[in-house]
Amino acid sequence: MSKLSTFFILFFLTQLAFSQTFTIRGFVTDQTNGERLLNANVYEQKILRGTISNNFGFYSLTLPKGKYSIACSFVGYQTQLLELNLQKDTIIDFKLATIADLDEVTVLGQKVESKLTSTQMSRVDIQMDKVQSLPAFLGEADVIKTIQLLPGVQSGTEGTSGLYVRGGGPDQNLILLDDVPVYNAEHLFGFFSVFNPDAIKSVSFYKGGFPARFGGRLSSVLDIRMKDGNEKELHGNFSIGLISSKINLEGPLVKDKTTFNFSARRTYADLLARPFMLTSSNGNDIGGYFFHDLNMKITHKFSDRSRVYLSGYTGRDKAYYRSDSKYTYKNENNTDETTQTKDKFSLGWGNITTALRWNYIFSNKLFANTTLTYSRYLFDVMENTTKKNLTTGKMGDEFGLNYKSGIEDFGLKMDFDYFPTPNHRVKFGGSIIDHTFRPGILAFKESDQESTAKIDTAFGNPNIRAQEMYAYIEDNFDLSARLSVNVGLHSSGFLVDDTFYASLQPRVSARFMASDRLSLKAAYSKMSQNIHLLSSSTINLPTDLWLPTTKKVKPQTSHQFALGGVYRVNPAIDFSIEGFYKSMTNLLEYKEGASFVGATTGWEDKVEMGKGWSYGAEFLLEKTIGKTTGWIGYTWSKAERQFNNLNWGRKFYARYDRRHDVSFVMTHKFSKRFDVGMTWVYGTGNAVTLPTQNVSGAYMPYINQFTYQSNYEYFGQRNNYRMPSYHRMDVGFNFHKQKKHGVRTWNLSFYNAYSRQNPFFLYFEQTSEAEYNQTGKSRKLTQLSLFPIIPSISYSYKF
Amino acid sequence: MKKYILIILLLATIFSCTKTLDFDEANNETQLVLNSIIWPDSVIAISISKSTSILFDRQVGQITGGTLDLYEDGTLLTQITSPTGHFYASGIKPKAGKSYRIVVNSNGKQLEAETTIPDQAEVLSIDTTSLIDVNGVRRTQYKVKIKDPIGDDYYRIVVMNEQLTQLSSRDYTDGNNITRKYYYITSQYWINSEDPVFKSLYNSMGEDVIDMGPENDYNIFPDDYFKGKEYSVQFQMSPNGYGYYNPYSYGENSPFKKLFERNTIHIQKLSKDMYNYLKYLKLYNHYHDNPFSEPVPVYSNVKNGTGIFAGFNDNTVSHFEKVYIPFSMDTIQIEEGSMYNYH
What we know:
The structure holds 2 protein chains of 2 kinds. Chain A folds into 3 domains: about 5-95, Immunoglobulin-like, CATH 2.60.40; about 125-225, Ferric Hydroxamate Uptake Protein, Chain A, domain 1 (Beta Complex); about 235-685 and about 725-799, Beta Barrel (Maltoporin, Chain A). Chain A has a 22-stranded antiparallel beta barrel. In chain A, a hairpin with a 6-residue loop joins strand 5 and strand 6 (about 80-85). Helices cover about 5% and strands about 60% of the residues of chain A. By secondary structure, chain A is mostly beta strands. The radius of gyration of chain A is 29 Å and the shape is globular. Chain A is built from 5 helices and 49 strands. Chain B is mainly beta. Chain B folds into 2 domains: about 25-115, Immunoglobulin-like (Sandwich); about 120-270 and about 315-330, no CATH class. Chain B is built from 3 helices and 19 strands. In chain B, the strands form 3 sheets. In chain B, strands 2, 3, 5, 8, 13, 14, 16, 18 and 19 form a 9-stranded mixed β-sheet that branches. A 4-stranded antiparallel β-sheet of chain B has the order 7-6-9-10, with no helix packed on it. Chain B has a 4-stranded antiparallel β-sheet with strand order 11-12-17-15, with no helix packed on it. In chain B, a hairpin with a 5-residue loop joins strand 11 (about 120-130) and strand 12 (about 140-145). The longest helix of chain B has 16 residues, at about 270-285. The radius of gyration of chain B is 24 Å and the shape is globular. The two termini of chain B are about 40 Å apart. At the A-B interface, strand 42, strand 43, strand 47 and strand 48 of A face helix 1, strand 1, strand 2, strand 3 and strand 4 of B.
């Protein structure tokens, strides 16, 4: 008899044993605004049986007939207690009230689900109030920059929103906004992320121990959920910062039935600069750069069992330039002729995501969520120049260029939460996504006045269609009072060019309670990734192309093992240690010098496939309650790569390999009117490739001496040089004041408070004559640092 | 396009500043560099030099001595000792289809490299047409039809130009005595082509508008598009192109008179080593100053050192543009310094 059959028989017997039971189910919500609370604890206090609410605030708890004391708790909220004589299936909606000042002496009670007790490891839930209260670069609070402060996560280049998780690449992160994948989460080349914190309800970040419901990327999952909107009354906030302003409004459209949440953000440097540009160019030139975001969500409750959500995001970066100039000259007849030249240029990129979700409670134990998703990322460049003789009316030279690339997805997803017994929390479901990859079409048009010759053509590849599908099942259950496990299977398929890739990915995580204050954890995940991000640069650029696995280019896979433990120092402080080992295969690197922009013909021949390893240990001391909260994180890790045709087949350190990484994050609330946030980060310098020697090249017969540069530089190993270490302190001060209709806050932030010159990139430059005379050296290694201390101020008002 | 992105990115660096870092040269070992390009009928010449620190001017550090063993298809042909690092295998001519290996012992290191001399390219025909381009400039369009054999092959096309110019000057102090001087110039044509065999190598479509990669200046291409088949490579030549050297004006009243001009088309088959060397040398030059690009190392097939040992085979077809010369070349004296001969 197979192990699977044994499992199902045992499962059936367990069901029988609980046949004399009844189920309590309902939702956990915030009392003041009706917002549903995710991962809230619902548990019976005496027998300590409990569950947690799912991603839509739904819970289900099955208990034998009898009298119970049911408690519902959530961090930052008062625990609610309910005495209950359970004689039939019962619906209880918990409405929790917030605690104004949560301190160490607040009794939280025993919880069934916490960092200490959860089977899940390598997961962090980011509190949005923490994101808002930490110092922010140019006053823009940023979810991804908060995640970068966690152990095991590297930020990549200075100031940017890249995520390099446990030695993985920037393309290996599954970023979900209301279950919709976001392909480019960066504004302004990563200096800001696309997520407006005002619109976000919850953020969960997984760097290992992936539950079976997630798949498609190797290194991390960032699960972001937007606010549903206040059910009771209209609320909102707006803020004015140095580079952008934003507004958030939420409220009921139909009280207790339909809600909305709307957020918008736009930078305005271009608008402020426009009058100066017009003045300096006599009204001829307009140019600038901006980005904007719009988040919208509407929620409607059909009944207690049925609810629908429509959420959308659109964001765009755009650089533009328009010029209209006139030139007057004397023609052959010595009369004036005027020509007009119009130039237009724009470069932009942006995402659109949409999710239509329907929650339905099929039974007290079965909750279903069906989601239709749409996601699009588009990068486009347009340039157009026309000339016209205004005197004769004759058209002159014309030049036009248009380039577009991106990816577009339509998806259907079904997820079920099944609560058969208090011991089992089963999740299962599946999804299908239709991808359209747009690898880049370049349209090119040129004509000139003097001849009839015209160019009007297009280069590039047609779109590539691919279908991705997966199904999963996972069960979180207790094997004993001390031992609980989460066992799951994620099965995925990818169909492209008549080739089908199938993958079975087992996921296991386990938790053993060694004592009331100490838990030991272990996890294993196999992951597979069928889409690749091709980049011809060492930094993330919007031109990077998403392309599918093909016949030649196989899916990336990884195996990750993690082992760790959580020790509860006191109710407010947890100390955790995690060690991990991750091996990756079929990683992609571009061949040296290969370029992908605009011409992806035969791109498979321009990439190298190789292997990667990363391993390390992460330490985290975290305090979540009290006037002072925050964490101290330390990571020791190594990340290596090996490609047969790169670096002569030898192993080399990944660019963002970082031996030591420290983060110190702290907020302190002095009073209701004043709080302070501070972060300090330290990291070993990035590995970069620098030339070490000058080499005399070969004498080449039949060569054009104008173009042949025979001498060149010799590089040793790839990533052979370590940049200086990186460290930086940011400090932010928040001044709050209660006003008649709400609370106003002034935020004063200092990025890089002690103005450390951190390395952005290194290069060799010529020495001055004085330096040459002193040292005899004609070149020197120079470091460019991006940001010194950058103060910023912002004003916000919440009503 | 990349330039626009870089402009926007650099706008973000308005607060940036720089500082000098110590660069530890001690950890960077000096490399022995072996260079040699061989082809049929050439003298086999090998040079060994030392690399120099990146912090100093490009100076080739000469070695003090070494020995070299030259093998043809595994058989030792000769052993040469040189105190200067320049080795000449006099009397030995490389042959098509043969494989050559050199082993050099110098400065306590043993360097090894191996390459082959490909067979000559099979040229079926060369057609030329004259056309006027959009700018009113006369160009010559070439169609070079080649027959590609089975297997991986690598090609390069070079068009060389030779001119013999006569300068006539009258000596007024001595009546009507006219002195004549002769100048002989060799230069290389700039090849202009939209042929995909050239353009696809570096994704350089779109010319200067979209800066996607370097130009294929060395006019190299693999046989990926026409493996084992016949193919007509098309290109144009611009007489005013970059690299074409013409210092003289041949107007009606000019003292200069062009006596003859000859274009020679070289259809070369390259060893894979030579193709890779030229390909990556160009990529290196294009990317090495870009701080956001992973640098491209120049290809080397030298074990325990760096440099290149590569072979090629040349097939030439000459095309005379003008022939006015009424006398034998042997009877005239070519002025010194007028010859730009790259052979």
